[in-house]
């Protein structure tokens, strides 16, 4: 066989290995299987079928199209099956690859591929750290550098070096078996020593390329998990910030009533206990708007006791279609509290708070408006203030929705303040889902 034809065939094999591994990894389920290092028997079989099917078809293509020898990567596939899936996946996958070659009368392929898969699976079990498998590289300079760095201080048998030698030994066994049984085992003969070296290098690369492509997918999934955990941690920190803030203000109100109106203080304590029990039951990032409004009712019961029913009036203009939609938990309470503390409290005659909700162009719009003293800059639309409550709401909206949600504050001096939240519509969210997962999915969906 001409050396140039062999070199072209080896080059095409590299392309086939990259194309097959890239095509397989497009499956979401395959990504999940790759991400799990510990798998049950069913998952191992599913992983094996994902990998073995295209490579077995490649063997059949090589049998059907005599000149397309680059389609046969059965030995490399057996190694991959074993080192990723374990002994069972490697053995069964090698058996299937051997059966595909048996269609052409190649009897020796079946036991050879099966044995290679089993030994590769044993190597997987021998790996001290499964990340060593994914860190395998076909570049000799990097492998040599890692070997020296790990073994010069403490001489030992490095797993990646052992795996590298196993691949070379497998290629040597394939070559010798093909020479001994040319009609019962497929191999590509090497007429020159340079071609032989290229063949060994190609075998190593055809194992390393799928590992690198699939490892990139694993790294992306790890980054997604880390991002989700980070968002969850931020949400928990923000939620733990708002609860002490609310508790501190309410306790101040109770303290002011203890001396001159203990009965009223007792009522406030009972109301506060009801709210705290409710907060303890809710750890979700999202709740239905209906539940959030009910929470505000409990909160306003406390404020009405403080201010008096003549000084604090509440108006609700809620679209019934919006009540089953979801909003970030504890998102309205800081806004209502801000209206009472900074808008209505300075006024001797008190005032009113209006809650509105409506749908607008695929967004849920929630408004909290008061007719209090307003802000000094008449007619201005300002950014969320630096207070704990308002800043907390703005930060949580950013964490949950990214740039898809907005919060604007419009105020006129002596005419009141209006806070408008505009968030993407989210419906049918299970209130029992984990806060971090919901937050991550909500933000991801708004960014797509």
SSE diagram, text form:
Elements: H1 3-24, H2 28-35, H3 41-64, H4 74-85, H5 87-102, H6 109-126, H7 131-134, H8 140-151, H9 159-180, H10 193-258, H11 262-281, E1 286-288, H12 289-307, E2 312-318, E3 326-328, H13 333-344, E4 351-360, E5 363-370, E6 380-382, H14 388-401, E7 406-412, E8 416-424, H15 435-447
Parallel strand pairs: 2-4
Antiparallel strand pairs: 1-3, 4-5, 5-8, 6-7, 7-8
Helix pairs in contact: 1-10, 3-4, 3-5, 4-5, 4-6, 4-10, 5-6, 6-9, 9-10, 10-11, 10-14, 10-15, 11-12, 13-14
How does this structure look, described?
With 448 residues, the protein is an alpha+beta fold. The chain has 2 domains: 3-225, no CATH class; 259-447, 2-Layer Sandwich (Heat Shock Protein 90), CATH 3.30.565. Helices cover 63% and strands 11% of the residues. It contains 15 helices and 8 strands. It has helices at residues 3-24, 28-35, 41-64, 74-85, 87-102, 109-126, 131-134, 140-151, 159-180, 193-258, 262-281, 289-307, 333-344, 388-401, 435-447, and strands at 286-288, 312-318, 326-328, 351-360, 363-370, 380-382, 406-412, 416-424. The strands form 2 sheets. Strands 2-4-5-8-7-6 form a 6-stranded mixed sheet, with helices on one face. Helix 6 packs antiparallel against helix 9 and helix 10 (193-258) packs antiparallel against helix 11 (262-281). The protein is elongated. The protein starts with a helix and ends with a helix.
